Fold this protein.
Amino acid sequence: MKDFLQSLNKAFDNRIRLGIMSALMANESMDFKTLKSLLDITDGNLASHIKALEKEEFIEVQKSFIGRKPHTSYKATKAGSTAFQEHINALEQLINHQLKQ
Amino acid sequence: MEKDYRKDISEIRSMMERSSRFISLSGLSGVMAGFYALIAAFIAFRIAYTFETIEYQDVLIRNVRGKKFELVLIALSTLALATVTGAILTKKKARKHDMPSWDNNAKKLVINLLIPLLAGGVIVVIFYQYGLIRLIAPMTLVFYGLGLINASHYTYRDIRLLGISEVLLGLLACIFTGYGLLFWSIGFGLLHIIYGAAMYFKYER
């Protein structure tokens, strides 16, 4: 039991960060506005969780211009994808363990 | 440590699902498109058909050729009306749920719908040139169905079932040629109303 818990990633302990990461795994990239409406949270709340994931280098920011408007979108890094996969594997093992008990 | 990790799994699943599909598509726009199609089919019937000619292909084909501008005009106005209504209703639904009404998934949806649809459009024109008029209505149904199946990866899965129904109906229409308008009314009218209403009650109520 303990081993499984250790392999869970602290960064994904929070459900919003888990949500951001899930969306970025399913899509090549996503912008701030879309993430915000999907998660139904405030700008500040989303920004702080994004910053946390950025600090872990699990996601990266892509700045570009659409016409003259600056456009910010986010993308999962390779390290982020791997960490997320490992996290899911750990979750799976943990649930299997819970079900056996 | 008694946290329920199953909730984490369902959050992951829901986010992956919702983020990769365009879910602002309104079921009501399907219902409206269906009604427009039925009205258009009725007008087309009054223009090109008479009750004596429904069995007689030669007369029918001559009628279709003679009235082609009127018929194409009806078809295009129906398409335009259905598209505009769909866009307005979808925008309304998106605003209600504070979702973007035009995003990457919507773009992919439209492009993937258009690829088979444009191919079908070209084939229909070629068939017309060769005088294969009886295969035009069946072909539009088949290619529209293929377009829907293609587009269904980026929106509700129900659209896939609608697409399969349209393809089957189109193939059936290939066998029973001469009833093109009837099959058209079922495919673009009835099926849209049924599926649109089902989606409305499933997702918007």
Observations:
- The domain at 2-100 of chain A is CATH 1.10.10.10 (Arc Repressor Mutant, subunit A).
- The first strand of chain A starts at residue 30 and ends at 31.
- The mean pLDDT of chain A is 87.
